[in-house]
């Protein structure tokens, strides 16, 4: 009988599920690459990280991933997405979920659409492993005023209504944060909702009413400011007077916006942004979405390759913004171009003031050509265009989201005890932020999706949309 001899070193090896060998780990927190590392995964956890030779002696794994000449980053977070368009678009929205993983995005924050109950159900199905998609954090239905423009809301016209809304969101829906918008919500109720949510320990984001200053929302306890226009507004010297004039009906929204656009003051802005930082208020610029709309007059998206992943009914929701942009005259178009550069210029100011900048796309229904998945990479590129370093842009997409949710003990770094949500890149994103697009492998919940698997996800998405397109074409005949 043949005797099998096991060396003492091999006998002492610990078992793991995945071993990523000889990789350069990107330490996003300190903006530095650490070469020659190995990363050990067991289940959904990172259990060891260290020099490749030592880890290889100490560990053996069911699957080994070659990381030589490649770069490993934490999973990406898109902190502002939407699902919606009505019940008939549920399946087209659901089909977007795998696209996020295909583009390295392992967590998304749904900032509310008109399918809140459906999204809450998806959140549970993903967590239970029954639905393939990124970790999903959601606000559920947003809080609004009576008879609002947006669907899928909880309508409130009194403090008692707000209390009931918050109770439902916290106790029944167990939302991850609260979204508050200003279509018809009374300004005083907006502030009340912020204060009450904070008292309940709930994070908040939203659209700040024109009749309020941004500082009032900050003082009331807003947790994140969505869209860079609001941060820009906080830097306008006469913001308080403009808000008062709007509240009193002395000016309309167009005039208020005109005065805001002309009133930026660097000293006022830096004071406001330092106050954001002091009170822990984050900013989600959603800048690429604004850039797309600003340049619709000269950028033709009708042949975008990514349209192959967007269902026909979702594509139809793009028409609203496209048509609005097409109605603009030459002066309005020039103003759009100037405005996007004007608001983009405040990104470095926010960074300098110590404000945490969050990467989020605003991707989803209505928001024309702002695509789920690739849109986050576009957002990071726009951040760099307007003055952030690649390291700062990468931190906005890997660490800011976990920081906002109080989850930096689990996400945003590559070390033992952290979640096994990782992205293996062919190039160094600290040198060129476009490297985040060069994805070799995505690890989600410890499961490895290599390039072949990622391409299969994309092929399945294209095929599904092609089938829907064929049905729509047949109906049109």
TrEMBL record:
Entry-linked Gene3D superfamilies: Amidohydrolase, Urease, subunit C, domain 1
Classification via SUPFAM superfamilies: Composite domain of metallo-dependent hydrolases (SSF51338), Metallo-dependent hydrolases (SSF51556)
Organism annotation: Sphingomonas koreensis
Keywords, comma-separated and alphabetical: Hydrolase
Any Pfam family the entry gives: Amidohydro_1
InterPro entries in alphabetical order: Amidohydro-rel (IPR006680), Metal-dep_hydrolase_composite (IPR011059), Metal_Hydrolase (IPR032466), Metallo-dep_Hydrolase (IPR051781)
Molecular function terms from GO: hydrolase activity, acting on carbon-nitrogen (but not peptide) bonds
Name of the protein in question: Amidohydrolase
């Amino acid at each position: 009988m043949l005797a099998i001899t096991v060396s003492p070193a091999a006998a002492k090896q610990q078992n793991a599920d995945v071993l990523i060998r000889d990789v350069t780990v990107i330490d996003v927190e300190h903006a530095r690459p650490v070469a020659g590392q190995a990363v050990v995964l067991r289940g959904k956890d990172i259990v060891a990280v260290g020099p490749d030779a030592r880890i290889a002696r100490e560990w053996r794994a069911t699957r080994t991933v070659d990381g030589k000449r490649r770069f490993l980053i934490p999973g990406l977070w898109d902190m502002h997405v939407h699902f919606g368009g009505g019940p008939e678009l549920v399946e087209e929205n659901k089909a977007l979920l795998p696209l996020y993983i295909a583009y390295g995005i392992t967590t998304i924050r749904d900032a509310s659409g008109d399918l809140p109950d459906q999204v809450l159900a998806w959140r549970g199905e993903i967590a239970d492993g029954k639905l393939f998609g990124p970790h999903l954090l959601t606000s559920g239905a947003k809080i609004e005023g009576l008879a609002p423009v947006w669907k899928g809301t909880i309508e409130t016209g009194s403090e008692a209504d707000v209390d009931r809304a918050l109770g439902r969101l916290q106790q029944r829906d167990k939302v991850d944060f609260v979204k508050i918008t200003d279509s018809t919500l009374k300004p005083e109720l907006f502030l009340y909702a912020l204060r009450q949510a904070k008292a309940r320990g709930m994070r908040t984001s939203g659209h700040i009413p024109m009749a309020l200053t941004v500082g009032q929302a900050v003082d009331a306890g807003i947790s994140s400011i969505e869209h860079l226009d609001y941060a820009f507004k906080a830097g306008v010297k006469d913001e308080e007077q403009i808000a008062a004039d709007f509240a009193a009906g002395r000016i309309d929204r167009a005039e208020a916006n005109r005065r805001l656009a002309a009133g930026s003051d660097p000293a006022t802005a830096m004071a406001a942004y330092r106050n954001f930082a002091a009170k822990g208020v984050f900013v989600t610029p959603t800048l690429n979405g604004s850039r797309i709309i600003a340049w619709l007059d000269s950028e033709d998206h009708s042949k975008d390759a990514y349209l192959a992943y967007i269902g026909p009914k979702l594509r139809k929701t793009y028409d609203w913004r496209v048509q609005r942009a097409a109605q603009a005259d030459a002066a309005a178009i020039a103003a759009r171009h100037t405005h996007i550069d004007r608001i983009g210029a405040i990104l470095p100011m926010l960074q300098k003031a110590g404000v945490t900048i969050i990467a989020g796309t605003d991707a989803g229904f209505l928001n024309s050509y702002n695509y789920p998945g690739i849109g986050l990479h576009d957002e990071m590129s726009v951040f760099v265009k307007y003055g952030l370093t690649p390291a700062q842009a990468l931190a906005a997409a890997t660490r800011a989201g976990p920081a906002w949710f109080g989850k930096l003990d689990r996400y945003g770094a590559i070390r033992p005890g952290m979640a096994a949500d990782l992205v293996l890149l062919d190039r160094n994103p600290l040198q060129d932020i476009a490297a985040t697009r060069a994805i070799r492998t995505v690890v989600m919940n410890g499961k490895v999706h290599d390039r072949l698997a990622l391409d299969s996800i994309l092929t399945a998405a294209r095929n599904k949309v092609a089938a829907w397109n064929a049905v729509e074409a047949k109906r049109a005949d």
